[in-house]
């Protein structure tokens, strides 16, 4: 029962932490400089995820074949389509397929 309560508490906490900003900023205009800065959030999060995937806990660079293949697909799809969702879906599919075939 405690695991269920932890999941519910985490879900509610996540919901309310996001809803506060939506409610607080609903009637305000976001300044252009802030909107420009917010355009870089997605790519910076993607870069952080990629770096954490490639670096071991000891700090060594450890790319394998699935990681390199997914990075190549990510770079190509992001460059050609400029679509974040398509990039993530195709990169993850490549990572999983190459990982399954290489195992």
Briefly summarize what is shown.
78% of the residues lie in helices and 0% in strands.
Structure, explained:
α4 packs antiparallel against α5. The protein has helices at about 1-25, 30-40, 40-55, 65-80, 85-100. The chain folds into two domains: about 1-30; about 35-100, no CATH class. It contains five helices and no strands. The chain is extended. By secondary structure, it is mainly α.
Number of helical segments?
Answer: 5
Structural class: mainly alpha
This entry's quaternary arrangement is single chain
Termini, distance in Å? 37 Å
Q: Which of globular, elongated, flat, extended, rod-shaped describes the shape?
A: extended
Question: How many individual domains?
Answer: 2
Helix % is over 70%
Low-confidence stretches: none
Question: Which H/E pattern describes the elements?
Answer: HHHHH
Mean pLDDT: 89
Sketch the major β-sheet. none
Provide the β-strand percentage band: under 5%
The counted number of beta strands is: 0
Query: Which value, in Å, is the CA radius of gyration?
Result: 18 Å
Summary keywords:
about 100 residues, mainly alpha, 5 helices, about 80% helix
Secondary-structure map:
Blueprint: H1 2-24, H2 32-38, H3 41-54, H4 65-81, H5 84-102
């Amino acid at each position: 029962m405690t695991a269920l309560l932890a999941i519910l508490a985490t879900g509610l906490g996540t919901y309310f932490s996001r809803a506060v900003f939506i409610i607080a900023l609903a009637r305000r205009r976001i300044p252009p400089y802030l909107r420009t800065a917010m355009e870089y959030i997605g790519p910076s999060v993607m870069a952080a995820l990629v770096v954490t995937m490639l670096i071991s806990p000891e700090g060594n660079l450890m790319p394998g074949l699935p990681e390199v293949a997914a990075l190549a697909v990510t770079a190509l799809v992001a460059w050609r389509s400029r679509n974040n969702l398509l990039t993530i879906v195709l990169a993850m599919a490549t990572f999983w397929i190459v990982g399954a075939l290489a195992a």
